[in-house]
Amino acid sequence: MKIVVDWDRCEANGVCVRAAPESFHLDDKDQLHVLTETVPPELRAKVDKAILGCPKQALSLSED
Amino acid sequence: MSLQTPSHPPTVSFSPDAPGYVLDPYPALEALRTKAPLYYWPEGRGWLLTRYEDAAAVLKDARRFSPNRAEWEYASVLGSAAMIPELVELNKAGLFALSGSDHARVRKLVSPALTPRAIERLKPELQVIIDDILNDLAGRDTINVVSDIADRIPPRVIGSMLKIPKGRETLFQRFTEAAVKSFLPGLLRPEEVAVMRTDVQEGIALVRETIEDRRRNPLPDDILTTLIQTEEQGDRLSTAELLSLVSALIVGGFETTIHLIGFTVYNVLKRPELLAQVQAQPELLKGVVEEVLRFDNFGKMGIARYALEDVEMGGVTIKKGQMVLVMLNSALRDESVFPNADAFDVRRNTNASIAFGHGMHFCLGASLARLEVQLVVETFIKRFPALRLAKEPSFGPHPVIRKMETLEVQLNQQ
What we know:
Chain A is built from two helices and four strands, in the order βαββαβ. Chain A is of the alpha+beta class and 64 residues long. In chain A, a hairpin with a 5-residue loop joins β2 (24-26) and β3 (32-34). The radius of gyration of chain A is 10 Å and the shape is globular. Chain A has one domain: Alpha-Beta Plaits (2-Layer Sandwich). With 414 residues, chain B is of the alpha+beta class. The termini of chain B are far apart. In chain B, α7 runs antiparallel to α9 and α7 (123-135) packs across α18. Helix content of chain B is 46%, strand content 10%. Chain B has a five-stranded mixed sheet with strand order 1-2-8-5-3, covered by helices on one side.
């Protein structure tokens, strides 16, 4: 499972960073970085919360 | 599957004006959550949703639930009378009423100004304001945290963010008070309205003037300049939209912040062992603020949404045009999401918290509110190490907030 970001939607509100700091990071230019593109099983629950919580629905998981 | 029989036993009722509710709404909310989690409240003409799962689902479902009051079946009868036409006009392009692509467009243009990093850059400015307000307390023995500190923070912060010209702060404060009150027409006395209209007209003129001045003289690292200059695929905010946004900043950022300050100070001071911990480790305050939002949410009612079509949910049918009140205060005490939900635990994982909402209307000012409240409380307890609660807080009437009126605190050792 890979994290996919819809860059047109991302507004850098940091909700995903709070939910899953191991997987998401905002740099000092407010650019989002995905730290774990492939989601390790132990982070799956947190990443799911980040995806579900994204106000902009900018995050999703892809199969490949 | 749809059940046509009412899902609530006749024993359930809801009276937010009953004595005791404002002090401790939680027994009443728990009764609803366990006995009738989707309850049609006849007096309020809307559904009360008290379970976390339903609350999160409705907030997330922008396709079927709108925040726009015009969608309400009673909008034409009970809609807030246009007492202050200037404000109705002012709020038309505001973020609270917009939905769909209009909302997405405006939100995208504003969000860079309120990201966690952008807010972090405001920290020195916030600290100056807080120090200034606390300086005024020197020599006092007992203060009211609400009127002496909390009430004074948001007007200064927002005025400073927008760089309202020096000497005009009082007018800006009157404007902000009028803008907030207009959302609560039930609390207004008729004789207040005329004064408010003048305040609002002068306030709008002041903000408009500030915007025009900033267009001519852009400032570095300035929110208003950023908003004016932000372009999104050739798109810009009009002056009307900028005015609406300023008003959204006020309405979204005032009473909420004031109450979060009051409730946080109260929850810390009533637990002397927590006060000692926070004094030793100020970084704990982050968790304290999150837990106060969850455990002792200042909301009296819920977030309103209006069904855009018939929706089957939890065994009931919410009809098109009906109002749903998403009771965050109850959802945040839902045992199925927050184990041991009735315990105040500043170290708990509050990632699931929906205190700032959920979905596309998630509070844009969340980072600002968090930082503002943490800094105020941290500075306050550092400045007055011997401070303690003088008496329990008192609450006043308010349609949607458990309005803390006094929180008397003794600053120094007797």
